[in-house]
Design a protein that fits this description.
By secondary structure, the chain is mainly beta. The protein is built from one helix and 30 strands. A seven-stranded antiparallel β-sheet has the order 6-7-8-9-10-11-12, with no helix packed on it. Strands 1-23-22-21 form a four-stranded antiparallel β-sheet, with no helix packed on it. The protein is globular and about 55 Å long.
């Protein structure tokens, strides 16, 4: 009898620990899916609309950005002030700086567009077992097939020139600069993998009812480490400083989990930080960020000509710069020289 009581107590305490791992951010949503962080604003999709919250507010107040998207909206990518939205059969965009944002169709006739990832001027899109891309500056907008893989795709994320993709119960990567594109499996797991996000060199991914991670700089084969479990259909992921934001779709909420102290110390930019593409045709991106950072762009005379904030996987627009060399500095002391093409 004492043994049964002891086991019951252990299970009860284990459940308490499991539930206490995450903190609710916003609840009462309607089939939430994708999330995206831009500065302090957390954008999220639910059913046919997009809303946002300011994560620094004491009392979080959802603000509706756009409604009536017709098709269920999924993943989002921010390019400058334009928020691109995957909607199954099409990609749309809205200007988040507009007083009353309205949707503009970018391209239609797609087949199950869900995941999106930006590299330079190319927006990569998942469509079932295919990856396609469109040139966001091209007119007219054309779809180009990139590669067909063996399983249905869900999430995508870039780390440098490597495109990481989820294929059912595995994660693969593709070097998009290779002459012949090949999806190389890097890890197989026990459940269906949905979304991924980078935090320095750690790749976090949702699978089943938990979030796991791998260090892509470690020796292969990779070993996944479980980070948080007991979740209810985790989908969208986003990171700000030490907080991992998670869409728990079946619970109709967004929760967060504190990742603790950065393994790279107080500096929030990893030693693997890189600027690309260089020369820059119209955008630059910084890989290796683990939180939103302040940046500044200087000309060769040392005159500051632009500044702002850059989040993980976000791009800095450079199309208005004159051709020539520039310096970009990040608040923590990293400086990069790049060429505007």
């Amino acid at each position: 009898m004492k043994q049964i009581y002891f086991l019951t107590t252990v299970l009860f305490l284990s459940c308490i620990k499991l539930i206490a791992q995450t903190t609710d951010v916003v609840t009462g949503l309607d089939s939430p899916d994708g999330i995206l962080l831009h500065g302090n604003d957390l954008y999220y999709t639910q059913d046919d609309k997009i809303s946002k919250i300011d994560i620094t507010e004491t009392t979080l107040t959802p603000v509706e950005i756009v409604d009536g998207l017709n098709n269920h909206s999924a993943n989002m990518v921010l390019i400058g002030n334009d928020l691109y939205i995957a909607q199954g059969s099409k990609i749309s965009k809205i200007d988040i700086t507009a007083t009353t944002p309205t949707t503009t169709e970018v391209i239609n006739g797609l087949n199950g567009a869900y995941g999106m990832a930006l590299h330079g001027n190319d927006l990569y899109i998942t469509q079932g077992d295919k990856i396609s891309k469109i040139g966001i500056t091209a007119t007219p907008t054309m779809v180009t097939e990139v590669i067909t893989v063996r399983s249905i795709l869900s999430g995508m994320v870039f780390h440098g020139n490597d495109l990481y993709i989820t294929q059912a119960d595995r994660i693969s990567k593709i070097d998009i600069t290779a002459t012949t594109l090949t999806a190389i499996d890097i890890i197989s797991v026990s459940d269906f993998v949905t979304e991924m996000v980078f935090y320095g060199n750690d790749l976090y991914f949702s699978q089943g009812s938990k979030i796991s991670k791998i260090d892509i700089t470690s020796t292969t084969p990779y070993t996944a480490t479980d980070v948080v479990s007991g979740l209810d259909e985790p989908l969208g992921l986003a990171i700000n400083e030490n907080d991992l934001y998670i869409v728990e779709s079946d619970e109709n909420k967004i929760s967060k989990f504190n990742l603790g102290t950065l393994s790279i110390g107080e500096d929030t930019v990893s030693s693997n930080v890189k600027l690309y593409p260089n020369p820059s045709p119209g955008f630059i991106q910084i890989s290796g960020l683990t939180k939103t950072e302040n940046y500044a762009i200087y000309n060769m005379l040392g005159v500051k000509i632009n500044s702002g904030t850059i989040a993980i996987n976000e791009k800095i627009r450079t199309e208005k710069l004159s051709k020539g060399p520039y310096f970009l500095t990040i608040e923590k002391g990293h400086t990069f020289k790049f060429i505007k093409d």
